[in-house]
């Protein structure tokens, strides 16, 4: 009885699907056997295996199998059609909406201490080369820095941030020149939590020089500009230096 009930229900659902699709119904619903005893098979089923399949499961006929295959294919097509596409890592390129640019001027002092009780520039690597000079930072020396930035030239004046990054001594012979990558992060005032990034050559023996501002974060997103440097103090024996910065930053 349970199998017959399931067969009838499946046949009815398939007929309904065919009607919605404009197809002919598969078979009429099965009529309940006039006499069924619990636990015994109906007499019609015991006649032959072929008639059993035809009478008890009309949905297993050729037409029924075609319908099932058709519905399965339609379901798969729908699944593929509505599946999200993750094949691209980029979006469509659209015109950029221009935002209003602003200019900010910054002024502070940069304290770079190589030798002392609390050095802020630490040697990471040093090239072992003959006749590499007597400079505190000979050619090939790589330093990591965490230098304080102050309002005045004295280290005891108000600290407004720090410069973190790397510099490498990049000049041979008697010249002294650095390639610097610094991130100047500010910890007070309107630009607390923001920073500018500098990447440039720094000819430290020149009294005045210029570095390129190549980026920023926080309120200095997409920053560009330049920094004018002037040596305030330098100790040739140790390399300790205090440098005055005047920075022009263009940002959004």
Automatic annotation (TrEMBL):
Transmembrane segments: none
Compartments (UniProt record): Secreted, Extracellular space, Apoplast
A UniProt-annotated Pfam family: Dirigent
Keyword terms, alphabetized: Apoplast, Secreted
The keyword Iron belongs to this UniProt entry's keyword annotation: no
A GO-annotated cellular component: apoplast
Record carries keyword Hydrolase: no
GO BP annotation list: phenylpropanoid biosynthetic process
Role description: Dirigent proteins impart stereoselectivity on the phenoxy radical-coupling reaction, yielding optically active lignans from two molecules of coniferyl alcohol in the biosynthesis of lignans, flavonolignans, and alkaloids and thus plays a central role in plant secondary metabolism.
Subunit structure and binding partners: Homodimer.
Family recorded in the similarity comment: Belongs to the plant dirigent protein family.
Protein name, per record: Dirigent protein
Classification lineage: Eukaryota, Viridiplantae, Streptophyta, Embryophyta, Tracheophyta
